[in-house]
Amino acid sequence: EAKHPPPDLNPDALNGGDLDPKYVRSCRIRTGRSIRGLCLPPAISRAERREVESTLTKALATLTGDMAGKYFPLATMNKEDEQRLIDDHFLFQKPTGHLMVNSTAVRDWPDGRGIWHNN
């Protein structure tokens, strides 16, 4: 029986990461979230989704150094920022796949959703 190794969340234990900039121009990281007391899609309500967005926005605003950046809420994003993020291949489109649509995970799109982009 295969077993997963125990999680090691110590960032000092990471090895490598020195990538040649002539080969790596950017990196995109997608994350999941779990905030105690708030549902995950598809069971989340519109109010809870807005609470998730507010909580994450406040947390992201505390990042410093290389991780400092800006949160772009999809619902109020201006056309200039939207086009720049599309041109740079960072902005995702509304999910249209059967799994996301039929699970109601994209309900109320784009309310309560956004993209964090570091400087």
- SSE arrangement, N to C: HEHHE
Largest beta-sheet characterization: 2 strands, antiparallel
Question: What would you call the structural class?
Answer: alpha+beta
- Structural Rg: 17 Å
Described by its quaternary structure, the protein is single chain
| Share of helical residues | 10-25%
Structure description:
This protein is α+β, with helices and mostly antiparallel strands and 119 residues long. The chain has 3 helices and 2 strands, in the order αβααβ. It has a two-stranded antiparallel sheet. The longest helix has 15 residues, at 46-60. The mean pLDDT is 85.
Main attributes?
119 residues, 3 helices, 24% helix, two-stranded antiparallel sheet, alpha+beta, single chain
Short description:
The protein is α+β, with helices and mostly antiparallel strands.
Topology:
Blueprint: H1 46-60, E1 69-73, H2 79-87, H3 98-102, E2 114-118
Antiparallel strand pairs: 1-2
